[in-house]
Write a structure and sequence with these properties.
heterotrimer, A alpha/beta (about 250), B mainly alpha (about 220), C mainly alpha (about 280), B: about 220 residues, mainly alpha, 9 helices, C: mainly alpha, Four Helix Bundle (Hemerythrin (Met), subunit A), 7 helices
Chain lengths: ~250, ~220, ~280
């Protein structure tokens, strides 16, 4: 089975700063992988590279079978990225935004509505301009866009930030559902306990590299290793293949 | 490409419907420019009447700068640029959609300005057909070139000052041609006017084609 | 403007590069033996050109087919025409190099485009100045809305916009790409501007304004041709240095990359990310 993410010595520059200084990383299909590391370690850049937004200038990098060094564009519509910015139009309502981005991704009309229901945005909030939302509500709206687009690879940058207790539970649920539906999740979080509880595996990121030697957070869950190489996650593959047999709308993961 | 263009233009028009920036700010600004021209050129209607075509299109150019600035600030705000690149929308479609959105806004501004010059400057319409097709062709050219430079300058430092410097020299032929065509249209002797209309159409075609090909590389590397 | 052969010569001594060929570049300078020879030739050429243009060639007599009767003022033409041609050549080189960059994606084409734009600004400004002086004598006004003059003025602004755009972007790849496209868009505009201004003038001014057509023969023709050669040399000399300067600048910026990667990786072992790293990766 080809890994969803396969990096060898990947270097990425932000201007002239080597934000990624040679990353080796493998993520297997159906995994939930947590990126851990101090501020400025390169987690955000790593996620943006996986999304095909930042170029890889040296080394090799494949995501969902797409060679990012050759042409990183084809991977973009197939991933979902929840970054620090909302990626929403301030003057449009939540419903306008979710519908526009869902249609841009050529998803079915029902998906947008279902996603908003899932994120609790189907009521009064649907018709509120995004500019008037709180930070947590914006996050939910961005997540709704992502859910509606059904990405094969979820890239979440601090998904728990700015959310209330219920929202955080919701995120964890979404991640589990995504994996159950055959997707793969790569996320960065400083919410130690919550993040390690849901992750199948923790990868330590420091100094623009993925460091296997660092004693990361092996403690929290049994599935966790501090290594950059994958370990088959316990429940996911079965559930994923099960789902594929039933629905099959998530393509190309296996 | 067309599907994406329609989606983007629909989104931009909805955005205008919700925010009313063109209606509440750009249009009043355009009328204000007309009034200021009158102050600058004396309230002698004869001078104003003679200069009407030029003043009309100067007001359109200034408004176009505002509209283009606004149209592309939207697309680079709060991660939207990334979202667009991730969206799977065809860059050529985004270009056509943005240009069409700007064109619709400009046509609305031109309509208001048209009423303005008839009212304030006493302009008399001789050949309405020529005036209308001139507006359409000139607006298409302005919107296409404007979208190109809008995305070129979007996300850069200094974009507010850079955009006029880059765009205005390029659209100078539009100003000349549209003004001349209008002069012909007001005089009812529209023979010369059609030649100018031809130039406007060629300009619009050239910059629309450039935009379709150039938008893809321009969306990269913000 | 006058080419100066006394450019920085650090590291130019034979001792530092014993096996250096004639055309080898100084590692940290912008000159080479070749460029110095070119500079010297250009300098001599300018002196000879001044002699031909100011002393040897006769003033415009006003007889025969010459309508202008420019007298001594005709000499400005020997400067104006070559400078104007180089100005359009520079613009063409900028646009063509931009196109080549978009095709080949190699840094050299971008540097060539940038160098040509910089040199082009100087020549465009000179074209406008000399054209204006010519106009003062030929048409009695410093400025006439002539198609060529107006197009050149817009060209100058396009050049300035192009350079301003380059300055506004720091990332070298993004800068190269956007500048190349901007150069091409601007290039497509020049003929449209020229035609529109031409029509615009012909519409209003029925009496045709006198053009550049004094009788050109013998020494005058020679002065004109010689001026063209000399100013092409000046352009080439300036281009060599500007290109080389851009190249050295790019290398200087790049030199730190390997060190930066090593430094970045070292952050990992120390376990603490530097504050600089924080600002970089927060994007």
């Amino acid at each position: 089975m080809e890994p969803v993410v396969h990096f060898r010595g990947a270097v990425s520059l932000l201007g002239r700063f080597p934000a990624l200084a040679g990353v080796d990383l493998d993520v297997a299909p159906g995994e939930i992988v947590l990126l851990q590391g101090p501020n400025g370690a390169g987690k955000t850049t790593l996620l943006r590279v996986c999304a095909g937004l930042v170029a890889v200038v040296a080394g090799s990098a494949r995501v969902l079978g797409v060679d990012l060094v050759a042409d990183r564009r084809p991977v973009r519509p197939r991933v979902g990225l929840l970054g620090h910015d909302s990626g929403l139009y301030d003057d449009l309502t939540v419903a306008d935004n979710v519908r526009f981005w869902a249609r841009a991704g050529k998803t079915a009309a029902g998906d947008a509505h279902a996603a908003m229901v899932r994120l609790g945005l189907d009521g009064r909030l649907a018709d509120v301009p995004v500019a008037r939302l709180s930070a947590g509500q914006r996050r939910r709206a961005s997540l709704a866009v992502m859910v509606a687009r059904r990405p094969e690879l979820w890239l979440l940058d601090e998904p728990h930030a700015a959310l209330d207790q219920e929202g955080r539970d919701l995120i964890d649920g979404l991640m589990r559902d995504a994996v159950a539906a055959g997707a793969t999740v790569l996320f960065a979080s400083h919410e130690q306990d919550r993040a390690t509880a849901i992750a199948h595996r923790v990868v330590a990121v420091t100094g623009g590299t993925v460091d296997a030697k660092l004693p990361a957070v092996e403690a929290a869950t049994p599935g966790v290793t501090a290594s950059g190489t994958p370990r088959p996650p316990a429940p996911a593959p079965d559930a994923a293949s099960e789902h594929r047999r039933q629905g099959g709308e998530v393509a190309g993961v296996a | 490409m067309l599907h994406d263009a329609l989606l983007v233009v629909g989104k931009d028009l909805r955005l205008e419907w919700r925010s009313r920036v063109t209606t509440n700010q750009v249009m009043p600004f355009a009328v204000l420019v007309l009034v200021l021209f009158a102050f600058a050129l004396d309230p002698d209607r004869r001078i104003l009447q003679e200069a009407t075509p030029g003043l009309f299109w100067m007001a359109v150019l200034f408004s176009a700068l505002l509209a283009i600035q606004r149209a592309f600030v939207l697309e680079s705000h709060d991660g939207v640029r990334d979202a667009l690149r991730l969206s799977g929308l065809d860059p050529a479609g985004i270009f056509l959609g943005k240009a069409a959105g700007i064109a619709v806004h400009l046509l609305a501004v031109e309509l208001v300005l048209g009423v303005g010059v008839t009212l304030f400057y006493g302009a008399h319409v001789g050949g309405p057909l020529l005036l209308i097709v001139t507006c359409l062709a000139a607006t298409a050219g302005l919107a296409a070139a404007g979208s190109l430079y809008g995305v070129l300058a979007a996300g850069l430092r200094l974009r507010e000052t850079l955009l006029p410097l880059l765009l205005l020299p390029v659209v100078a032929p539009v100003l000349i041609a549209a003004t001349q065509a209008f002069q012909a249209g007001f005089r009812q002797a529209s023979g010369e006017g059609w030649r100018w209309f031809g130039l406007l159409a060629i300009f619009a075609l050239i910059y629309t084609s450039i935009g379709i090909f150039a938008f893809d590389p321009l969306m990269e590397e913000s | 403007m006058t080419p100066d052969t006394s450019t920085p010569r650090q590291a130019g001594s034979p001792a530092s590069s014993p096996s250096a060929g004639r055309w080898r570049l100084d590692p940290a300078g912008t000159a080479s033996v070749g460029s110095r020879v070119l500079g010297l030739v250009t300098l001599v050429g300018i002196a000879a050109f001044l002699l031909v243009a100011l002393v040897a060639s006769p003033p415009d007599s006003g007889r025969d087919a010459s309508i202008n009767q420019m007298g001594e003022a005709v000499r400005i033409m020997y400067l104006h025409v070559p400078v104007a041609i180089v100005c359009f050549l520079a613009f063409f080189v900028t646009a063509a190099s931009g196109a080549m960059y978009l095709w080949r994606k190699s840094e050299g084409w971008d540097l060539l485009a940038a160098a040509s734009a910089e040199v082009g600004v100087v020549f465009t400004a000179l074209t406008l100045a000399t054209g204006s002086i010519w106009g003062r004598f030929a048409w009695g006004a410093w400025w006439v809305w002539d198609a060529r003059l107006t197009t050149t003025a817009l060209l100058l602004i396009l050049f300035l916009g192009y350079l301003a755009l380059r300055r506004a972007i720091t990332d070298p790849v993004a800068r190269a790409k956007r500048a190349a496209i901007a150069g091409l868009i601007g290039f497509a505009d020049v003929p449209i501007v020229h035609y529109s201004v031409d029509w615009w003038r012909s519409l209003h001014q029925k009496a045709t304004i006198t053009r550049f057509n004094p009788t050109i023969d013998g020494l005058k023709l020679f002065a004109l041709m010689f001026g063209m050669v000399v100013f092409l040399l000046v352009y080439a000399w300036l281009m060599v240095h500007r290109f080389r300067l851009q190249y050295v600048q790019a290398r200087a910026e790049e030199r730190g990359l390997d060190a930066a990667i090593a430094e970045r990786r070292a952050e990992g072992s120390s376990g603490v990310a530097s504050p600089l790293a924080g600002t970089g990766a927060a994007r």
